[in-house]
Fold this sequence. Notes:
Strand order of the largest sheet: 1-3-2
CATH class of the largest domain: Mainly Alpha
Strand content: 15-25%
CATH architecture of the largest domain: Orthogonal Bundle
CATH topology of the largest domain: Arc Repressor Mutant, subunit A
Helix content: 25-40%
Shape: elongated
Number of helices: 7
Amino acid sequence: xxxxxxxxxxxxxxVADKLKLHPQVIxxxxxxGEIPGYKLGKEWRVADHxxxxxxxxxxxxxxITARTKVEKTFFKEDKLSAIPAQRKKRIFVLERxxxxxxxxxxxxxxxxxxxxxxxxxxxxxxxxxxxxxxMMVRKDGIYKRSSSYFRCPDDGRKAPTGKGVQxxxxxxxxxxxxxxx
Length: 181
């Protein structure tokens, strides 16, 4: 925030002129608190940096992907509020949780439970989903991130294919699985 002496304040008419909106629209947004402002008597004033921040928060330039939308919906204050029922959303959530695990390290079931428990109480379902989606492998109670799992594309594109990669329609949703040879 700039120093007070460097701050510029705009009137309702100034803001309306800059945004090419009717002054009544600006006044309504100020009264509702949508645009941050200061009421001085009967007049409103808007700090120029507050207006700029407000515009940047509502900018159409930021691309909101399906993954971002799902993460904003299901993660509240770094806690998983619910396990999504829809498979694609659940996969985005699982991939976010998978980031908590190192790739080359092995984990005991208790360690997996502790990491997942920091996000959601139903660690059994999350562990099971990791295994079913081939994101992790389990053998004798030891878990490890699967090296053959490829992150689900969230921009509508299909996963890459080519030499040395084959796809299948099994539990990995047609995403590429490396093959030898």
